[in-house]
Design brief:
Elements: E1 12-18, E2 27-33, H1 51-64, E3 67-73, H2 75-81, H3 83-96, E4 104-108, E5 120-123, H4 131-154, H5 160-163, H6 169-178
Parallel strand pairs: 1-4, 4-5
Antiparallel strand pairs: 1-2, 2-3
C-alpha cells in the first residue's frame, strides 16, 4: 500500500525520472502534486507495471492531479553536464511547470539539488512507497516511451520502439552495425571496450 504523503503540507510534490541508463534519447522527469483525496489501487512504481497499465494510468493521473509537469533533457545536454546532473535538471524543469508551487518535494533516489529553497527529501525506492512519486514515475516513463516511439520511425534499425534506447543486446548490435545517430549519448560507453567505434 503506497503512502499518500511524507510531510504535513497541502502541496507536496513527488518527482522521478526515466531513461537514465539509456544509450539514446532524453532523460525525462515528471513532477506531480496529488490531492489528499487521491486513491488508486493499481498505481505503483512504473517498473512494476505493464505498459498497458501505465498507459491506462497516464490520463487518470493527469486528470486527478492538482498539477503535473513533464520535461525532457536531450542527449546533447546530457553529454555536456553528465547524466546525474541531467536527471536532476529534468526534475527541476518538471517542477518549474507546477502551479500551485509545491511546499515540499519528495524525490525518488538519493541525489537531488535544492530547488528554490523548497524543503525536500530524497527517498530510495520512493516510487514504490509514495503515490505522488509513483505517479511521477508513470508520467516520466510514458512520455519518454512516446518520444522514443516517434524517433524509432526515423531510425527503425535500432528498434527503439521495443528497447526504448536501453542497452539491450539488439541495440548494441545495431550500433556495431550502423554506428550511432544524433540521438545517441556520445558521453556514454555505447559498446563494451573491446568493440571500439570509429567515430
Amino acid at each position: 500500500m503506497l503512502l499518500k504523503s511524507h510531510s504535513k503540507v497541502n502541496f507536496e510534490c513527488g518527482t522521478d525520472e526515466a531513461g537514465r541508463g539509456c544509450l539514446a534519447g532524453p532523460v525525462t522527469a515528471a513532477a506531480v502534486i496529488l490531492p489528499k483525496s487521491f486513491k488508486n489501487a493499481i498505481l505503483n512504481d512504473s517498473k512494476q507495471l505493464s505498459e498497458k497499465k501505465r498507459e491506462l494510468l497516464k490520463p487518470v493521473i493527469e486528470l486527478d492531479a492538482l498539477t503535473f509537469g513533464v520535461a525532457h533533457v536531450y542527449q546533447e545536454e546530457i553529454d555536456q553536464i553528465n547524466i546525474l546532473n541531467a536527471s536532476i535538471l529534468a526534475m527541476h524543469r518538471s517542477i518549474d511547470k507546477l502551479n500551485p508551487i509545491p511546499e515540499y518535494i519528495i524525490v525518488d533516489g538519493n541525489k537531488f539539488k535544492p530547488y528554490n529553497n523548497i524543503p525536500f527529501e530524497t527517498i530510495i525506492k520512493g516510487d514504490g512507497k509514495y503515490l505522488s512519486i509513483a505517479a511521477a514515475s508513470v508520467l516520466a516513463k510514458t512520455y519518454r516511451d512516446e518520444y522514443m516511439n516517434q524517433i524509432h520511425e526515423e531510425f527503425p534499425m535500432y528498434n527503439w520502439k521495443k528497447n526504448k534506447g536501453y542497452p539491450t543486446k539488439e541495440h548494441r548490435e545495431a550500433i556495431k552495425k550502423y554506428g550511432i545517430t544524433k540521438y545517441h549519448r556520445k558521453s556514454f560507453r555505447l559498446l563494451p571496450e573491446q568493440l571500439k567505434l570509429d567515430l
